[in-house]
């Protein structure tokens, strides 16, 4: 459908023809309009160029964003390292009088990295009395109709035990088998095995488990047990397609990865060690993340880069800078040098020619072509380092990067929103990363002036993490019981904040909402609000997701100047706006945010042009109440609606619905 702005989600879509100045009233909404405001736009005068990198994504392993989220692996604790001696997420299956036991075996490693395996001792079993091990997945195994899954595992059998092993996806009680295949025999010693499982015309469910079963006595060890559904671009070890589609729709210019706190680790040994995330999965040990669970490292550095490639984005590569969350740091100077070298190696892995050491490694790993890279972020939130060592650590890493990769731009993790004594003064960073987690009311207050009045004599700005929360700050325990994704109240504040960043997008070169992803199952997340929610079967965008989508799909490349004339001088403006133009098509994109309960007429005056196409497009995200939101049960309660405006002239009035973000696309 021509005007559909999100082709992949079945949200309600409405094309209405409205005369300019008319409002399509929604039932039950307040009817009394607020006094009009006037917005004058200098349509023929560029106020700056929109940074081509302005809008991107930020990711780290939090909220089961990757394991149990975007990374499509369906088996939780596939390498038996998550629970110490306890085989968490695994259970023994004993049908009809069979008898067996399972245990984590630390003395029977598959590889140097995968040092634990699951030992299954079967005392009694037969074809009518199977014994097996069942995995409950990441809050269930998603069963979808007519779907092909690839199951694989390593097994080592005691002499005399040669299988077969039956592999199945079945209901949690085992009564319904959705897909089944058999590995006919096992050989002694560790060997890989793989089968394909195909579901029929089943009703989708996540109330399912994955089972490896045998039908005779003996002992067998399992490791690296894996189950993948179809992935984005059919990549092996790939990503979940529904989530990828939502990310691609956002048209991200970059992906800031891999964090965030996750980059730093709770301690120095638990930092993101990129070299340990390369190569075959048998050589990836995984590591404890800072958010309370282990990472499999199945999504390693190369997979981050492929993810960028698949989105048409480039990485903003965050390199470890010698500070971890427990407050320890590496002294600048010789102590830091190995970490500096590690960062240089990492950049070479991403960008180096195949003739370089790490470029050759990337080629060996399957990607000879270098990845594009312009920005490297040195650390994360180093203002927390109370010893103030970042000033020197930054300079040491920055100088080494500039010496080997002179074209790269380096980002300091201490922005101007942090105390002056924490900022980098040893050298001038190219860019500084500012983080804003703010209450909706604060973003609404800040948006009209924050970056408009900013001192532009310093480094360019990357707003590497930002999000509005409704009332309760993310790190307050009371937020733990709230929905994992934001409501319309936060989305409108996010939209307001984006108007300020976009008006200044020649200077705010990059920005990314955080966190991006959340598994909404109870116990799966550590933070709110988050942009996109999901469980094993479903995914939904929050109202803030759609607000960002609307900005990004109507970006323009030139900033136009506007002036808002509000009824009472000195009072906060009743609306927030940003206006850009696409220099090729001439289309003017006007974003308007009405955070109030009353309809808001806006008298729009496009100065400097004689005519405008009489039909314009309005894309509107509106809600009846600030508490309206989307969820697994109501994924499309708040979604953009497209309508056509008639009789548009260089001077016309448009009435914004209550609680709304509107994008007007006006053509020449
Ligand atoms: O986005 C969640 C956390 O907030 C990030 O890991 C950290 O950088 C910030 O404090």
Fold-level CATH name of the domain at 253-429: TIM Barrel
Percent of residues in helical segments?
10-25%
Strand order of the largest sheet: 1-31-30-33-28-27-26-2-29-32
List each distinct ligand once: alpha-L-arabinofuranose
Which percent band covers the strand fraction? 25-35%
Low-confidence stretches: 1-29
What is the CATH H-level superfamily of the domain at 253-429?
A: Glycosidases
Which class of the domain at 253-429 in CATH terms?
Alpha Beta
Give me the secondary-structure category. Answer: alpha/beta
Radius of gyration: 27 Å
Number of strands: 33
Termini gap: 23 Å
Total count of helical runs of at least 4 residues: 9
The overall pLDDT average reads: 95
What's the main sheet like? 10 strands, mixed
CATH architect. name of the domain at 253-429: Alpha-Beta Barrel
Name the shape in a single word.
Answer: globular
């Amino acid at each position: 459908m021509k005007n559909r702005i999100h082709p992949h989600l079945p949200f309600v879509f409405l094309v209405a023809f409205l005369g300019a100045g008319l409002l399509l009233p929604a039932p039950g909404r307040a009817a009394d309009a607020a006094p009009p405001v006037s917005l004058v736009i200098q349509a023929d005068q560029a106020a700056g160029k929109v940074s081509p990198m302005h809008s991107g994504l930020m990711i780290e392993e939090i909220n089961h964003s990757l394991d149990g989220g975007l990374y499509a692996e369906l088996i939780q604790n596939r390498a038996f390292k998550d629970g110490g001696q306890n085989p968490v997420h695994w259970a023994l299956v004993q049908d009809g009088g069979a008898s067996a036991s399972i245990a984590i075996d630390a003395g029977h490693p598959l590889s140097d990295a995968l040092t634990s395996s699951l030992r299954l001792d079967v005392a009694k079993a037969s074809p009518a009395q199977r014994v097996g091990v069942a995995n409950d997945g990441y809050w269930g195994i998603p069963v979808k109709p007519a779907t092909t899954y690839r199951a694989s595992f390593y097994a080592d059998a005691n002499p005399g035990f040669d299988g077969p092993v039956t592999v199945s996806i079945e209901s949690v009680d085992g009564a319904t088998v959705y897909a089944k295949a058999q590995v006919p025999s096992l050989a002694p010693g560790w060997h890989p095995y793989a089968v394909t499982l195909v579901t029929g015309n089943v009703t989708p469910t996540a109330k399912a488990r994955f089972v490896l079963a045998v039908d005779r006595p003996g002992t067998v060890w399992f490791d690296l047990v894996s189950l993948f559904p179809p992935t984005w671009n059919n990549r092996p070890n790939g990503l979940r397609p529904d989530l990828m589609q939502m990310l691609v729709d956002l048209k991200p210019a970059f992906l800031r990865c891999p964090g965030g706190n996750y980059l730093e680790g709770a301690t120095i040994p638990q930092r993101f060690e990129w070299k340990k995330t390369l190569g075959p999965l048998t050589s990836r040990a995984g590591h404890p993340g800072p958010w309370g669970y282990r990472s499999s490292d199945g999504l390693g550095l190369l997979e981050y880069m492929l993810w960028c490639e698949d989105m048409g984005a480039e990485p903003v590569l965050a390199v470890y800078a010698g500070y971890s969350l427990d407050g320890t740091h590496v002294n600048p100077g010789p102590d830091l040098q190995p970490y500096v070298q590690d960062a240089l190696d990492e950049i070479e892995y991403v960008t180096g020619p195949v003739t370089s050491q790490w470029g050759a490694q990337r080629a060996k790993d399957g990607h000879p072509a270098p990845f594009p890279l312009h920005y490297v972020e040195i650390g994360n939130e180093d203002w927390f380092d109370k010893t103030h060592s970042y000033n020197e650590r930054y300079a040491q890493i920055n100088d080494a990067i500039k010496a080997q990769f002179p074209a790269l731009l380096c980002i300091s993790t201490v922005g101007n929103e942090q105390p002056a004594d924490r900022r980098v003064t040893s050298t001038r960073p190219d860019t500084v990363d500012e983080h804003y987690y703010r209450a909706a009311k604060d973003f609404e207050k800040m948006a009209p002036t924050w970056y408009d009045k900013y001192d532009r004599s310093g480094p360019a700005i990357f707003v590497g993490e930002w999000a509005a929360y409704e009332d309760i700050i993310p790190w307050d325990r009371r937020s733990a019981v709230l929905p994992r994704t934001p409501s319309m109240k936060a989305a409108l504040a996010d939209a307001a904040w984006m108007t300020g960043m976009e008006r200044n997008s020649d200077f705010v070169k990059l920005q990314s909402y955080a966190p991006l992803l959340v598994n909404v199952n109870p116990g799966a997340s550590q933070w709110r609000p988050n942009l996109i929610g999901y469980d094993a079967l479903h995914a939904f965008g929050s109202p803030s997701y759609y607000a960002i989508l609307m900005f990004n799909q109507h970006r323009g490349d030139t900033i136009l100047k506007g002036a808002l004339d509000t009824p009472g001088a000195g009072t906060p403006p009743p609306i927030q706006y940003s206006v850009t133009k696409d220099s090729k098509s001439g289309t003017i994109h006007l974003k308007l945010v009405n955070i109030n309960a009353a309809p808001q007429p806006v008298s729009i005056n496009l100065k400097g042009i004689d005519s405008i196409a009489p039909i314009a497009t309005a894309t509107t995200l509106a809600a009846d109440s600030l508490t309206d939101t989307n969820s697994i049960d109501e994924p499309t309660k708040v979604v953009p609606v497209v309508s056509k405006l008639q009789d548009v002239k260089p001077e016309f009035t448009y009435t914004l619905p209550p609680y709304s973000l509107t994008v007007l696309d006006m053509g020449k």
